[in-house]
Amino acid sequence: MPVELTMDEFDYDAIIVGAGPIGGYLARKLAKENLRILILEEHAEIGRPFQCAGLVNPKAMESVGLFDTVLTPIWGARIYSPEGTLVEIGQQEKVRTWSVCRKLFDEAVVIQSVKSGADIWLSSKPIDLKIDEEKVEVEISTPYGIKKLTTKVVCGADGAHSWVRRTLRMGKPKETMIGMQIEVSGYNGKKGKLDMYTGSDISPGFFAWVIPSGETARVGVWSQTKYIGEKSCEDLLDELMNNSRWSYKFKDCREVGRFVGSVPSGILKKTTSTRVALFGDAAGICKPTTGGGIGPGFAHIDLIAEDFANLIKIDNLDKISLSKIDKKIDKMRKSQSRARALRDAFLSHSSDNELEEIFKVWAKPDVIKMINDVGEIENPIPLGTKMLKEIPEFRRLAGRAIKAVLWS
Ligand SMILES: Cc1cc2nc3c(=O)[nH]c(=O)nc-3n(C[C@H](O)[C@H](O)[C@H](O)COP(=O)(O)OP(=O)(O)OC[C@H]3O[C@@H](n4cnc5c(N)ncnc54)[C@H](O)[C@@H]3O)c2cc1C
């Protein structure tokens, strides 16, 4: 027979594994509801190792107000076809996204949670979880030895390779992209604009990017193993910077840092189970079109925080009650599938020749106007759908995307 526990018998109301931006944001939201929160972070400091292009969308930025971490506002993009057709978009008065210092950003998000009352243990990670209907027991490796704590619920915000997700066998995201990025000085770019390069030799199925970040720029590629075969992301980056038609833009670049990481996309079939919930990369919440995880990760938390806090307060955390929280992100799941279908139709499933044809249409002044008026980096669905419906040259692409985009 399980022993009945009173509120005080739990050390914490929730233990959050991972002090990335998503763990930090979740901790702040729950601590503000007067819940007792502990964040566990396996590293000795927040925001290392750094694995991100550092773009934060306007809505996510507003929810944390960390404008002092901004390196450069990004208001436009120059997108190049494999053969060099340029599509230049953006309006200087409309910031589309912010390029931030991710280390400062992550630290500041976590500090906000601590100011709201959350505790944090650094250099600490869970090594065992025992979950039953009454409680969760977490065994934690800390610099001071092994500690055991009880909590009502454990939250996995522990990134792409989530220990919580793997330990509790909660499935895998639909797709995992691999990304590689280097930080350079000396890139020949344009202030406020990100550059995007396409082509099967440099970023098969996806795109390569250069993002201005203050004094330096972040040069990255992402793709999937099914597209790059024997090659590595490092090979692709090398191709972009040294052998492609764009190598002249990189000739004065000096590398100052390099990072490799995964981009898990395709929200898990179930992000919750008895006394457990997954968030951010652990739940597979990155956008299939941009690889951005901070915006959708915050949006997920905004969507469920209040209901989740109420369930924690009344200790109603069985599988069925928590599945109501999971259901709330069905709309996000659907919108990610539609965005993926659009990405596939326009980019991932197009050969270089087909991409050339697409770029020729995108480069027309009336289409550029449509992109500037309707396009949003974070939500490509309205623009993609409009293009498929209204631009005759794209009708044949609609066949690829029609089921997921037009009729869902
Ligand atoms: C090359 C690249 C470029 C990207 N560019 C962008 C971009 O421009 N914009 C954007 O929004 N997203 C971008 N992303 C994705 C973005 O980095 C992630 O979506 C975001 O960091 C997710 O936050 P998170 O808190 O879920 O996970 P993470 O940032 O990975 O944080 C997880 C935290 O948990 C800790 N942790 C892990 N395991 C344990 C454990 N067992 N115990 C305790 N602690 C643990 C980690 O140390 C880490 O601090 C990019 C990703 C890559 C690979």
Task: Give a verbal description of the structure.
The protein is an alpha/beta fold and 408 residues long. It folds into 3 domains: 7-49 and 103-173 and 268-328, FAD/NAD(P)-binding domain; 71-100 and 175-264, D-Amino Acid Oxidase, Chain A, domain 2, CATH 3.30.9.10; 334-406, no CATH class. 35% of the residues lie in helices and 26% in strands. It has helices at residues 21-31, 58-64, 102-115, 163-167, 225-228, 233-243, 294-313, 319-327, 330-348, 352-362, 365-374, 381-390, 395-406, and strands spanning 12-17, 37-40, 55-56, 70-74, 76-80, 86-90, 97-100, 119-121, 125-131, 136-142, 145-156, 175-185, 193-197, 208-213, 216-223, 254-265, 272-273, 276-278. The longest helix has 20 residues, at 294-313. The termini are far apart. Bound molecules: flavin-adenine dinucleotide. Flavin-adenine dinucleotide binds at residues 17-23, 40-43, 51-55, 125, 157-159, 163, 179, 181, 220, 261-263, 280-281, 286, 291-295, 297.
